[in-house]
Every structure is written in C-alpha cells, then in structure tokens.
Input
Amino acid sequence: MQRLNADRARKLRIEQTDAEQLLWHRLRNRRLQGWKFRRQHEIGPCIADFVCPDADLIVELDGGQHGEQVIYDERRTLELQVMGYSVLRFWNNEVLKNMEGVLEVILEALASPGPLPPSGGSPRPSLPRDYLRVARRGEGVASTET
Output
C-alpha cells in the first residue's frame, strides 16, 4: 500500500493542475515567509496537496469534481484532523483569481499557535464566500459556503 501511495504521489507531482502549479511556485523553497512546504505528500493513507510539517497545516485545492464528493472530502479532512493537522481548503478558481488572498489566509493559519481559531482567522472579506472552504482541527468540517 505504501508503495502505491508513493507512486501515486509522484504521479500527482508530475500532473499538477494549473492552480497547484501556481500555488506551489509561491510556497516552494520557503518563499512564504520562510515556511517549509511539501507538495503531494503522503500522510497516512492520504496524499495532501500541500503540507507545512512545522505547523501541522495542510492546504488542499479542490476542483470541480470536489463538488460531487463532499462526503469523501469531509471524511478525509476528519481523518487528517484526527492525526493532528489543521486543513485549509480552497477552490482552484480562488487560487487562480485571488492568489494574494489565499496566501494571506495561509499566513494567518501559520501564525496562529495550535489549532486554528473557531471563528475568526478566515476568510477575509476580500475572499468570495463560495470559493473558500476551511476545515479546522477538532471542529469537523466548517464551511463558509452559503
């Protein structure tokens, strides 16, 4: 199973979406205020799009197919939270249209000690509510969608 995940993670790194490529360009090599990120990183049975191990923060990008697999995504987020991670979810469209807003939300999560705060923190007013979904450690899946 581990070998399959490693092969799958390698394939996902090669076949990144446009949004993943753009975000990775901004996160790689400690470009985001010195924080170290990994992409398509194995965490247990899951492969996280981006993870900052020092902050136990996972950033997931969701494309159109995620609108049809909400229950799967919620279960996966809960699994990652049980392992001690905070999870931020953004729609690909949000990354493509509002990169600076996305990076600001990620920085807020990195700056908060321990679990993400239950109410504040994100999304910023400049972030369209229908593009950003945030799951916070220990709270199940919180959604800012209307």
Summary: Residues 2-135 form a domain with the Endonuclease; Chain A fold (CATH 3.40.960.10). The radius of gyration is 14 Å.
